Amino acid sequence: MAILVTGGAGYIGSHTVVELLENNFDVVVVDDFSNSHPEVLNRIKEITGREFRFYEQNLMDKAKLEKVFAENSIDAVIHFAGFKAVGESVEKPLDYYYNNLTSTLLLYDVMRNNGVKKLVFTSSATVYGLNNKSPLTEDLPLSTTNPYGSTKLMIEQILQDLYVSDDEWSIALLRYFNPIGAHESGRIGESPNGIPNNLMPYITQVAFGKLEQLSVFGDDYDTVDGTGVRDYIHVVDLAKGHVKALEKHCSRRGVEAYNLGTGQGYSVLQLVEAFEKVNSVEIPYQITGRRSGDVAVCYADVSKASLILNWKTEKNIEDMCRDSWKWQSKNPEGYR
Ligand code: UFG
So what's the pLDDT on residue 53? Predict the structure, then answer.
Protein backbone atom coordinates (compact mmCIF):
# COMPACT_ATOMS: atom_id res chain seq x y z
CA MET A 1 0.00 0.00 0.00
CA ALA A 2 1.36 3.43 -0.93
CA ILE A 3 0.83 6.34 1.42
CA LEU A 4 1.39 9.97 0.43
CA VAL A 5 2.68 11.95 3.42
CA THR A 6 2.51 15.72 3.00
CA GLY A 7 4.91 17.52 5.32
CA GLY A 8 6.76 14.25 5.83
CA ALA A 9 10.06 16.02 6.56
CA GLY A 10 8.62 17.85 9.58
CA TYR A 11 8.79 16.88 13.23
CA ILE A 12 5.72 14.65 13.48
CA GLY A 13 5.75 13.80 9.77
CA SER A 14 9.27 12.35 9.87
CA HIS A 15 8.52 10.15 12.88
CA THR A 16 5.37 8.93 11.15
CA VAL A 17 7.29 8.11 7.96
CA VAL A 18 9.64 5.96 10.07
CA GLU A 19 6.70 4.06 11.57
CA LEU A 20 5.07 3.59 8.16
CA LEU A 21 8.28 2.21 6.63
CA GLU A 22 8.79 -0.08 9.61
CA ASN A 23 5.26 -1.38 9.05
CA ASN A 24 6.08 -2.10 5.39
CA PHE A 25 4.01 0.63 3.78
CA ASP A 26 5.36 2.24 0.63
CA VAL A 27 5.79 5.93 1.31
CA VAL A 28 5.81 9.00 -0.93
CA VAL A 29 6.77 12.24 0.81
CA VAL A 30 5.97 15.75 -0.39
CA ASP A 31 7.62 18.63 1.48
CA ASP A 32 8.94 22.07 0.54
CA PHE A 33 11.39 22.30 3.48
CA SER A 34 9.81 25.60 4.54
CA ASN A 35 10.01 24.42 8.15
CA SER A 36 12.25 21.36 7.83
CA HIS A 37 15.61 20.28 6.43
CA PRO A 38 16.65 17.86 3.65
CA GLU A 39 18.99 15.99 6.02
CA VAL A 40 15.97 14.46 7.75
CA LEU A 41 15.41 12.27 4.67
CA ASN A 42 18.85 10.67 5.04
CA ARG A 43 18.24 10.10 8.72
CA ILE A 44 14.91 8.35 8.05
CA LYS A 45 16.63 6.03 5.57
CA GLU A 46 19.44 5.39 8.03
CA ILE A 47 17.00 4.46 10.84
CA THR A 48 14.74 2.24 8.75
CA GLY A 49 17.11 0.91 6.07
CA ARG A 50 14.29 1.58 3.61
CA GLU A 51 13.91 3.80 0.58
CA PHE A 52 10.97 6.04 -0.26
CA ARG A 53 10.09 8.55 -2.95
CA PHE A 54 10.46 12.23 -2.23
CA TYR A 55 9.16 15.34 -4.03
CA GLU A 56 10.41 18.78 -3.00
CA GLN A 57 7.41 20.93 -3.73
CA ASN A 58 4.76 23.18 -2.26
CA LEU A 59 1.21 21.86 -2.07
CA MET A 60 -0.05 25.07 -3.66
CA ASP A 61 1.36 23.88 -6.98
CA LYS A 62 -1.58 21.80 -8.15
CA ALA A 63 -0.02 20.70 -11.44
CA LYS A 64 2.95 19.23 -9.56
CA LEU A 65 0.64 17.53 -7.10
CA GLU A 66 -1.28 15.94 -9.95
CA LYS A 67 2.02 14.64 -11.27
CA VAL A 68 2.76 12.98 -7.91
CA PHE A 69 -0.55 11.14 -8.13
CA ALA A 70 0.06 10.25 -11.79
CA GLU A 71 3.52 8.82 -11.06
CA ASN A 72 2.52 6.83 -7.98
CA SER A 73 -0.37 4.55 -7.19
CA ILE A 74 -1.40 6.34 -4.01
CA ASP A 75 -3.90 4.49 -1.78
CA ALA A 76 -4.20 6.94 1.13
CA VAL A 77 -2.90 10.29 2.33
CA ILE A 78 -1.62 11.55 5.67
CA HIS A 79 -1.77 15.33 5.55
CA PHE A 80 0.65 17.18 7.87
CA ALA A 81 1.82 20.10 5.73
CA GLY A 82 0.80 23.53 6.97
CA PHE A 83 1.84 26.56 8.98
CA LYS A 84 1.70 25.76 12.69
CA ALA A 85 2.88 28.57 14.95
CA VAL A 86 0.07 29.94 17.10
CA GLY A 87 1.65 33.36 17.77
CA GLU A 88 2.67 33.88 14.15
CA SER A 89 -0.87 33.04 13.05
CA VAL A 90 -2.17 35.96 15.12
CA GLU A 91 0.35 38.28 13.40
CA LYS A 92 -0.29 36.92 9.91
CA PRO A 93 -3.86 35.62 9.77
CA LEU A 94 -4.21 36.00 6.02
CA ASP A 95 -1.08 33.94 5.39
CA TYR A 96 -2.38 31.20 7.67
CA TYR A 97 -5.88 31.06 6.20
CA TYR A 98 -4.59 31.33 2.65
CA ASN A 99 -1.86 28.73 2.95
CA ASN A 100 -3.48 26.14 5.22
CA LEU A 101 -6.92 26.22 3.63
CA THR A 102 -5.93 26.60 -0.03
CA SER A 103 -3.30 23.87 0.01
CA THR A 104 -5.69 21.53 1.79
CA LEU A 105 -8.53 22.19 -0.67
CA LEU A 106 -6.21 21.59 -3.61
CA LEU A 107 -4.99 18.35 -2.07
CA TYR A 108 -8.51 17.00 -1.48
CA ASP A 109 -9.54 17.99 -4.99
CA VAL A 110 -6.61 16.10 -6.50
CA MET A 111 -7.33 13.12 -4.22
CA ARG A 112 -10.97 13.03 -5.31
CA ASN A 113 -10.05 13.34 -9.00
CA ASN A 114 -7.79 10.33 -8.57
CA GLY A 115 -10.31 8.29 -6.60
CA VAL A 116 -8.17 8.40 -3.43
CA LYS A 117 -10.59 8.80 -0.54
CA LYS A 118 -8.71 7.60 2.51
CA LEU A 119 -7.27 10.37 4.61
CA VAL A 120 -5.64 10.96 7.98
CA PHE A 121 -5.67 14.65 8.89
CA THR A 122 -3.55 16.24 11.61
CA SER A 123 -5.82 18.28 13.78
CA SER A 124 -5.12 19.60 17.25
CA ALA A 125 -6.50 19.74 20.77
CA THR A 126 -6.64 23.48 20.18
CA VAL A 127 -10.11 22.89 18.63
CA TYR A 128 -11.50 22.34 22.15
CA GLY A 129 -11.11 26.06 22.85
CA LEU A 130 -10.97 27.68 26.27
CA ASN A 131 -14.21 26.60 27.89
CA ASN A 132 -14.28 22.81 28.00
CA LYS A 133 -13.22 20.91 31.08
CA SER A 134 -10.55 18.19 30.92
CA PRO A 135 -10.52 15.27 30.35
CA LEU A 136 -11.61 16.33 26.88
CA THR A 137 -13.80 13.97 24.87
CA GLU A 138 -14.20 14.14 21.09
CA ASP A 139 -17.90 15.07 21.23
CA LEU A 140 -17.44 18.37 23.10
CA PRO A 141 -18.41 21.68 21.46
CA LEU A 142 -15.50 23.09 19.46
CA SER A 143 -14.12 26.63 19.24
CA THR A 144 -10.79 28.30 18.68
CA THR A 145 -8.82 31.27 19.90
CA ASN A 146 -6.35 31.96 17.09
CA PRO A 147 -6.13 31.71 13.29
CA TYR A 148 -3.95 28.58 13.39
CA GLY A 149 -6.56 26.77 15.48
CA SER A 150 -9.33 28.12 13.26
CA THR A 151 -7.71 26.60 10.16
CA LYS A 152 -7.68 23.21 11.94
CA LEU A 153 -11.34 23.53 12.91
CA MET A 154 -12.38 24.77 9.45
CA ILE A 155 -10.62 21.86 7.79
CA GLU A 156 -12.36 19.43 10.17
CA GLN A 157 -15.67 20.99 9.11
CA ILE A 158 -14.77 20.81 5.42
CA LEU A 159 -14.03 17.11 5.84
CA GLN A 160 -17.33 16.50 7.63
CA ASP A 161 -19.11 18.15 4.68
CA LEU A 162 -17.06 16.18 2.18
CA TYR A 163 -18.18 12.93 3.76
CA VAL A 164 -21.82 14.03 3.71
CA SER A 165 -21.49 14.66 -0.03
CA ASP A 166 -19.74 11.35 -0.75
CA ASP A 167 -19.82 8.48 1.73
CA GLU A 168 -16.97 6.64 0.04
CA TRP A 169 -14.55 8.83 2.00
CA SER A 170 -12.85 7.48 5.08
CA ILE A 171 -11.31 10.20 7.22
CA ALA A 172 -9.54 10.16 10.58
CA LEU A 173 -9.16 13.54 12.31
CA LEU A 174 -6.33 13.19 14.81
CA ARG A 175 -6.43 15.75 17.57
CA TYR A 176 -2.92 15.92 19.01
CA PHE A 177 -2.22 17.05 22.52
CA ASN A 178 1.39 18.14 23.23
CA PRO A 179 3.94 16.12 21.24
CA ILE A 180 7.46 16.10 22.68
CA GLY A 181 10.38 13.65 22.66
CA ALA A 182 12.26 12.32 19.69
CA HIS A 183 13.16 9.02 18.06
CA GLU A 184 15.14 6.90 20.52
CA SER A 185 18.08 6.78 18.08
CA GLY A 186 18.61 10.51 18.64
CA ARG A 187 18.82 10.93 14.85
CA ILE A 188 15.51 12.71 14.21
CA GLY A 189 13.67 15.21 16.39
CA GLU A 190 12.16 18.66 16.57
CA SER A 191 14.23 21.41 14.97
CA PRO A 192 12.42 24.72 15.42
CA ASN A 193 13.57 27.80 13.52
CA GLY A 194 14.74 30.57 15.85
CA ILE A 195 13.70 30.80 19.48
CA PRO A 196 11.23 28.02 20.31
CA ASN A 197 7.62 28.85 21.21
CA ASN A 198 6.86 25.53 22.84
CA LEU A 199 7.92 24.36 26.26
CA MET A 200 10.08 21.29 25.60
CA PRO A 201 12.33 22.71 22.88
CA TYR A 202 12.78 25.76 25.10
CA ILE A 203 13.79 23.56 28.04
CA THR A 204 16.30 21.59 25.96
CA GLN A 205 17.91 24.78 24.68
CA VAL A 206 18.21 26.12 28.22
CA ALA A 207 19.75 22.80 29.28
CA PHE A 208 22.26 23.11 26.46
CA GLY A 209 23.11 26.69 27.40
CA LYS A 210 21.81 28.25 24.19
CA LEU A 211 19.13 30.07 26.17
CA GLU A 212 19.70 31.51 29.61
CA GLN A 213 16.56 30.57 31.48
CA LEU A 214 13.02 29.37 31.03
CA SER A 215 10.14 31.75 31.55
CA VAL A 216 7.27 29.92 33.22
CA PHE A 217 4.09 31.57 32.00
CA GLY A 218 2.05 32.01 35.17
CA ASP A 219 2.00 30.28 38.56
CA ASP A 220 -1.48 31.34 39.62
CA TYR A 221 -3.61 28.83 37.74
CA ASP A 222 -5.91 26.50 39.64
CA THR A 223 -3.57 23.52 39.27
CA VAL A 224 -1.35 21.35 41.46
CA ASP A 225 1.42 23.99 41.65
CA GLY A 226 -0.18 26.95 39.88
CA THR A 227 1.49 26.32 36.50
CA GLY A 228 -0.30 25.20 33.33
CA VAL A 229 -1.10 21.51 32.90
CA ARG A 230 -0.79 19.72 29.54
CA ASP A 231 -1.01 16.22 28.15
CA TYR A 232 2.50 15.57 26.82
CA ILE A 233 2.77 12.68 24.39
CA HIS A 234 5.92 11.04 23.01
CA VAL A 235 6.17 11.76 19.29
CA VAL A 236 6.85 8.07 18.54
CA ASP A 237 3.61 7.06 20.28
CA LEU A 238 1.87 9.77 18.28
CA ALA A 239 3.40 8.50 15.03
CA LYS A 240 2.20 4.98 15.86
CA GLY A 241 -1.30 6.41 16.34
CA HIS A 242 -1.24 7.51 12.69
CA VAL A 243 -0.44 4.00 11.52
CA LYS A 244 -3.29 2.60 13.64
CA ALA A 245 -5.70 5.23 12.29
CA LEU A 246 -4.64 4.49 8.74
CA GLU A 247 -5.09 0.75 9.19
CA LYS A 248 -8.52 1.20 10.76
CA HIS A 249 -9.74 3.66 8.15
CA CYS A 250 -8.59 1.46 5.27
CA SER A 251 -11.38 -0.92 6.15
CA ARG A 252 -14.17 1.46 7.13
CA ARG A 253 -15.91 4.53 5.80
CA GLY A 254 -16.89 7.64 7.70
CA VAL A 255 -15.29 10.59 9.40
CA GLU A 256 -14.13 10.24 12.99
CA ALA A 257 -12.13 12.41 15.36
CA TYR A 258 -9.71 10.82 17.83
CA ASN A 259 -7.76 12.34 20.68
CA LEU A 260 -4.10 11.34 20.66
CA GLY A 261 -2.70 12.00 24.11
CA THR A 262 -1.79 9.97 27.16
CA GLY A 263 -4.79 10.98 29.24
CA GLN A 264 -2.52 12.34 31.95
CA GLY A 265 -1.63 15.96 32.67
CA TYR A 266 1.69 17.35 33.91
CA SER A 267 2.32 20.90 35.04
CA VAL A 268 5.15 23.03 33.63
CA LEU A 269 7.14 22.62 36.86
CA GLN A 270 6.50 18.87 36.97
CA LEU A 271 7.89 18.57 33.45
CA VAL A 272 10.92 20.70 34.37
CA GLU A 273 11.52 18.55 37.44
CA ALA A 274 11.21 15.28 35.49
CA PHE A 275 13.64 16.64 32.87
CA GLU A 276 16.19 17.67 35.48
CA LYS A 277 16.00 14.35 37.28
CA VAL A 278 16.20 12.04 34.27
CA ASN A 279 18.99 13.97 32.56
CA SER A 280 20.91 15.24 35.60
CA VAL A 281 20.86 18.82 34.34
CA GLU A 282 19.59 22.02 35.84
CA ILE A 283 16.95 24.22 34.23
CA PRO A 284 17.05 27.74 35.65
CA TYR A 285 13.65 29.39 35.42
CA GLN A 286 11.74 32.49 36.42
CA ILE A 287 8.02 32.89 36.85
CA THR A 288 6.52 35.49 34.52
CA GLY A 289 2.96 36.53 33.71
CA ARG A 290 0.45 34.31 31.97
CA ARG A 291 0.68 33.96 28.19
CA SER A 292 -2.51 35.19 26.58
CA GLY A 293 -4.71 32.46 25.11
CA ASP A 294 -3.35 29.73 27.41
CA VAL A 295 -5.79 27.44 29.23
CA ALA A 296 -4.98 26.29 32.77
CA VAL A 297 -5.49 22.59 32.13
CA CYS A 298 -5.70 20.53 28.94
CA TYR A 299 -5.62 16.74 28.82
CA ALA A 300 -7.34 14.08 26.80
CA ASP A 301 -9.87 11.38 27.37
CA VAL A 302 -8.23 8.73 25.22
CA SER A 303 -10.83 5.98 25.48
CA LYS A 304 -12.09 6.40 21.90
CA ALA A 305 -8.67 5.91 20.30
CA SER A 306 -8.02 2.98 22.61
CA LEU A 307 -11.36 1.31 21.82
CA ILE A 308 -11.63 1.95 18.08
CA LEU A 309 -8.02 2.23 16.95
CA ASN A 310 -6.65 -0.26 19.47
CA TRP A 311 -3.93 2.29 20.25
CA LYS A 312 -2.47 3.48 23.48
CA THR A 313 0.73 5.24 24.46
CA GLU A 314 3.68 3.17 25.67
CA LYS A 315 6.17 5.83 26.70
CA ASN A 316 6.16 7.80 29.93
CA ILE A 317 7.26 11.29 30.88
CA GLU A 318 10.81 10.08 31.67
CA ASP A 319 11.14 8.57 28.17
CA MET A 320 9.94 11.86 26.69
CA CYS A 321 12.47 13.90 28.69
CA ARG A 322 15.34 11.50 27.99
CA ASP A 323 14.70 11.34 24.25
CA SER A 324 14.18 15.11 23.89
CA TRP A 325 17.55 15.71 25.56
CA LYS A 326 19.33 12.99 23.59
CA TRP A 327 18.20 14.62 20.34
CA GLN A 328 19.12 18.15 21.44
CA SER A 329 22.50 17.25 22.92
CA LYS A 330 23.53 15.17 19.88
CA ASN A 331 22.20 17.76 17.40
CA PRO A 332 22.67 21.20 18.98
CA GLU A 333 21.97 22.93 15.66
CA GLY A 334 19.13 20.59 14.70
CA TYR A 335 19.74 19.30 11.16
CA ARG A 336 21.77 22.35 10.19
N1 UFG B 1 5.13 27.43 28.64
C2 UFG B 1 5.95 28.12 29.50
N3 UFG B 1 7.08 28.69 28.98
C4 UFG B 1 7.43 28.59 27.66
C5 UFG B 1 6.57 27.87 26.81
C6 UFG B 1 5.44 27.31 27.33
O7 UFG B 1 5.68 28.24 30.70
O8 UFG B 1 8.47 29.15 27.27
C9 UFG B 1 3.92 26.77 29.20
C10 UFG B 1 2.62 27.23 28.59
O11 UFG B 1 2.12 28.36 29.25
C12 UFG B 1 1.76 25.98 28.75
C13 UFG B 1 2.75 24.82 28.61
O14 UFG B 1 4.02 25.41 28.88
O15 UFG B 1 1.21 25.93 30.05
C16 UFG B 1 2.79 24.22 27.22
O17 UFG B 1 2.97 25.25 26.26
P18 UFG B 1 3.36 24.92 24.74
O19 UFG B 1 3.57 26.22 24.04
O20 UFG B 1 4.47 23.93 24.69
O21 UFG B 1 2.06 24.17 24.18
P22 UFG B 1 0.55 24.67 24.12
O23 UFG B 1 -0.24 23.74 25.00
O24 UFG B 1 0.39 26.09 24.34
O25 UFG B 1 0.22 24.43 22.58
C26 UFG B 1 0.39 23.18 21.95
C27 UFG B 1 0.79 23.38 20.49
C28 UFG B 1 -0.33 24.02 19.72
C29 UFG B 1 -1.59 23.25 19.90
C30 UFG B 1 -1.89 23.03 21.36
C31 UFG B 1 -3.04 22.08 21.51
O32 UFG B 1 1.91 24.22 20.41
O33 UFG B 1 0.00 23.98 18.34
O34 UFG B 1 -0.78 22.45 22.04
O35 UFG B 1 -3.55 22.08 22.79
F36 UFG B 1 -2.60 23.92 19.33
Answer: 98
